What does this fold into?
Amino acid sequence: MALLTAEEWSAVRLSLQVATSSVAASLPIAVLISLVLARGRFPGKALLDALVHLPLVLPPVVVGWLLLVLFGAQGPLGRLLHDLFGIRLVFTAEGAALATAVMGFPLMVRAVRLSIEAIDLGLEDAARTLGAGPLDRFVTITLPLMSPGLLAGAIIAFAAGLGEFGAVITFVSNIPGETQTLTLAIYTAVQTPGGEGTAARLAAISFSLALAGLLASELLARRMRAWLGR
Amino acid sequence: MTVSVSVTQRLGDFALDVAFEAPSPGVVALFGPSGSGKSSIVRAIAGLSRPEAGRIAVDGTVFLDTEARLALPPEKRRVGLVFQDARLFPHMSVETNLRYGLRRAPAGERRIGFDAVVAMLGIGHLLARRPHTLSGGEKQRVAVGRALLAQPRLLLMDEPLASLDAARKAEVLPFLERLRDEIRLPILYVSHDWAEVARLADTLVLLDQGRVIAAGPVADLAANPSLPLAAREDAGAVLDGTVAEHLDARGLTRLDASGIPLLAARLPHPPGQRLRLRIPAREVSLAAEAPRLLSVHNILAGEVAHITPGHAPGTALVAVRVGGVTLLSQVTQDAVSRLALGPGSPVHALVKSVAVLRV
It folds into this structure.
């Protein structure tokens, strides 16, 4: 007997794919925003900080609705993307990745920002006097030293992204094989008479993935701290 | 070739307003109490802070000229900076740290070689190690090597030994002396430790509250009674000497200090070796006539240059000129009046051989 049905597999696969692409797409932006928040001094910094953290406190349904308004077929950004690149986000896996990325963004920024703030600025001064320009310093000093936070942030966002529900279902609905992620599949199974078995199996997978993510994050962070001699 | 620095900068309540020139190559020490502006000057020279006004030039390269609206960024100045906390990059091996500046130095100007620096600083066995596994003294040596290998126009050392204990200091100092003697580079050495400065520096810039109170050769400033150096408990003359010969039968070494012969207890250094010497003022006695049958080896005829009150009440600091050098003697006011000493009086300075110290 197969462990999972084809439909259940497709939900697991889709979840992994959505979480991966959401992390991959948002990581560079998270690094940029974290740098700005950790190092920058400008008016409106508090507002930017608040905006970044908004998905943490807003009901996910509201985030999904906002995405629908902005990126829907009639939304300003949605229309722009469609006209320029032919990209449609509503009711697609890409849309699910966007919703997941927005929800996971604050988690990622928190981890990355902390790791940037922990870097001794004196090291960058030292690199400057040794002839390293801004980009050179970022690549050879800042980036490696913030890598523990980068990895931790990515893994946490990935693990949380596997379980994103409200924003995804609001923005891209719950279409089996297209936008039905692991969490949505569990929800559907619970709603379906006789779906208890499916729900339990998928819940167990969800549980293991989340646990593995957290453990991997902790383990990697420890490895990297040892590598950096902290 | 010279290093010329002139900067004014306001930092909160503190105002820095200094100007000095220093010969190149050579070691210039910025010496003064904490808060006197030493580190601010270093940061301004390295380009890590921006003075309101000033001009900084090293061997013809202008780093900063606020009138001409010119300020090279730190990465273009090629100034080797050794920080008090070594600031080695924790994610790189010692070797990668050492090569960091070297790889970024212009290919045509790599005159200080990797192997030579590693050998000079005695860090060959550390190359594969990570910075966090090094002792404080080892870290500082690697930091010095890293700064040197960046092929700097000027080496800045900001209290490089201040965070080390006495034993670690003693371990690193000989390497800094070799550096001074072997690499022809202007070096600016910041310290609040008089012993370090007296040992390493050729030129001294005395700082207090953001201002230069005196600048000149170490020996001149050490013997100048109007400066705070003379008010120190360990006030004394600083001389440059050369080992002339060893008198092994007598357990003595004869030194030549600017033409003045000095006998010291047997030193381990070979004849011809140049040494920085210190003769503490309280180890120098004075006599109006040359005494005979005395245990003291060095009886030097000279004349009194000036007399100032000593750092303790009832004492006096007498500067005695002997040939080309000035010795300091700390005696009581009573002794000054008994010997009827005044500027120009002929006098004999008595210096025990064990009081001729290698700094």
User: Anything to note?
Assistant: Chain A touches chain B at residues 120, 122-123, 125-133, 136, 140-141, 144-145, 227-230 (CB under 8 Å). Residues 6-39 of chain A form the longest helix (34 residues). The mean pLDDT of chain A is 90. Residues 91 and 227 of chain A are 44 Å apart (CA to CA).
